[in-house]
Amino acid sequence: MALITADRERFPDTPWQLVETHHQPDNAGTLETLFALGNGHLGIRGAHWAAADAELPGSFINGLHEIWDIKHAENAFGFARTGQRILYIPDVNNFTVIIDGESLSLAESDVLDYRRTVDFATGIYECRITWRCRSGASVTTTERRAVGFASRGALGISLEVASDREVSADVTSSVINRQDQPVEDHSAHDPRRAGRHAGRVLLPVRIDGSDGSLRLAWQAAESGQRVGLAVDHWTSAGHQPFETVAGEDDSSVRYVLAVRAEEPFRLEKSVSYAAGPGVQDSERDAAETAEAGLRPVEDIFVESREHYREYWATSDIVVAGQPQLQQAIRWNLFQLAQATARADVAGIPAKGVTGSGYEGHYFWDQEVYLLPYLTYTNPDGARKVLEFRHEMLPAAKIRAKELSVDGALFPWRTINGLEASAYYAAGTAQFHIAAAIAFATSRYVWASGDDAFREGTGAELLIETARMWISLGFFGKDGLFHIHGVTGPDEYTAVVNDNLYTNVMARFNLRAAAAVEHQAIDDAERQLWVQAANRMHLPFDEDLEVYSQDNDFMTLEPWDWTTPRSKYPLLLHFHPLVIYRHQVLKQADTVLAMFLQWQDFTAVEKRRAFDFYDPITTGDSTLSACVQGIMAAEVGHPGAALEHFTNAVFIDLDDTHGNTIDGVHIASTGGVWSSLVCGFAGLRDQGHMPFFDPRLPAEWEALTFHLKVRGRLLLVELDAGALTLSVQSGGQLDVDIRGQVFRVGTDPVRVALEAFECPEPTVFPSGPPTASMPVVHAAG
User: Fold this and answer.
1) CATH code, 17-303
2) What are the pLDDT digits (tens) for 186-212?
3) In 10 A of CB 255, how many CB atoms?
4) Side-chain half-sphere of 114: how many Cα atoms within 13 Å?
5) What are the pLDDT digits (tens) for 595-641?
6) What is the reported pTM?
7) I need a surface site. Which of 137, 306, 459, 635 has the fewest CB within 10 A?
8) How far apart are the C-alpha atoms of 14 and 12, rounded to whole Å?
9) Which residues are catalytic?
10) DSSP labels for 252-290?
11) What CATH class has 315-692?
12) Crossing angle for the helix pair 500-514 and 523-534, nearest 10 degrees?
């Protein structure tokens, strides 16, 4: 299924914008996601004010959620008890425009011209529509939106109505409580989609309005979390509102006036939300707190422009000679900025703040797929995410005791720090989230040189996760250290013994903790960690000469690759037990381990592993294509590398997995960044110095980007014949390029690159299957 690339007339190839040139009554929900705005704290979906076919319009605040008691069909000790789900906050993006008695609607009115854009360079959404009214007037409406950055709870919206003749206009601006509106619940049919609460969730605390201003506040029924909202209206001609109505679920401000030719009516809507710890005190007025954050609408637009001017100066990635890819790359980078810029000390939901998919939970995605991007473009942001994980440490220690392990066991999916995964086989059993947090901690310390973090918060995260691993695993009769009863990243094999990814990452975790100088560790504990790491069991198939995904993976029955495409993703068409007993992968697992722990495996081992696992990886997970592409580039499959990358960069733009309606796959956008920087530019880290081994696709002219490394801003320029490095700010930096060390300063260092010779294809005596699964599916 293709959306953007299938209709380039409707969605033209523009390098700094996503543009829609005419409206069609299809894919409304997906386009609401693609045209969404956000800053990591506040998000607003890209729904039309004049659309009768809006599917999931609404807005979100990161971390604002409701809770409920999980009802298990059969209970057991240690099961997740409390469900958590992100809430739709009261939505301000609502207008009705009536001209000479006709309510303008994309479904029923005559549209002469239409164009809407989201501008990556400024962060501003604009939709301009020219209507032929039944009265004969030609009316143009222009709506613009932007979210605040210095004021992260602020939102600015303007609506202009212009006419070629005098018309009677009736314009209403509304706030709607969408959370408590009835809506179809798709979650029973697709576990990737968020469900909706039955009954009333948002209870009104304050409902006030007069003279075009609204002061509103609500409290979630069970979690008790509060949200305050302040809305002020301003008009270009000083028009007074005809009426202001404040209601529990629908508040509005209405203007009735004459719009004359050459005198457009402009309505500006300044919005401020307040949520979080600052408004949880019942004696504090959440609406008044929100009111303090109100800003003139133009100031919010200026904030957005200034933020993105600074962002793109150091975060842009340019691929020369590939305009279609360039637009898609920038859209993905724009989504990364929207998901992380002002999250502050909070997690990054799997859909950012663009939708309710995955119920707004935080997963391992943020550490493995998002923190590489943050660490090298916004290290302060990376630190805040890790500080957020550290705030969960007390709850993680309690959870560890519940599962009879020491140290800290972080929840697989959560908002408030408690485990929210009701299916433990693909949830709690993914102990590897502990190593993901440790790995992100180590990478941040390595790349930033943040000694204070290393000695404090970072040390605690490494130590407590190491204590979990040493108690979870055991020394077997063979003298090796084993970790049993776990699920790795590949959720199509669950609760296995010695998952290779888990063991490799646990080994890293133990070694990193053992290297920490901290009074909480004694010599005996340190030596035990070192011994377990050195004796970690890594399953290996001697016949195939390939590392096995787990102890039993090579004994499983091969999957039937004649299964029709309509049966993918497998999780929607086969019982988990059917999938678990077959040799089939949802996503890269062993291959991911070899990317993250690149120094632990030889080139031959990586090549044989990739050649074995890639054909049996369905790509049903959006986390897979980017990793497969990175490793395809490293091991010498340039065609596969570019194919996997292209699939990754268009996952949401073409809705190839069929669930973009629920929000952007933020981890995949982070994977796109890693694909460019780590895949084609070949960056590897956590060694003695940054290491580059480039693999530029033959179809590309050049690849250019910046990295923030140890207080320096490093410019990386790669073309077909050479890699050029220069430090734009900060001191000199030693860099390893294919085994040669260069000292890089302000003067560019250009290193000629010999063409990479692709090794011979791996030939296996008995499998894997010769027919590989297509990477792109209609849903996944």
Assistant:
1) 2.70.98.40
2) 555 666 666 666 679 999 999 999 999
3) 20
4) 19
5) 999 999 999 999 999 999 999 999 999 999 999 999 999 999 999 99
6) 0.96
7) 306
8) 6
9) 491
10) EEEEEEEEBTTB-EEEEEEEEEEESGGG-STTS-HHHHH
11) mainly alpha
12) 150
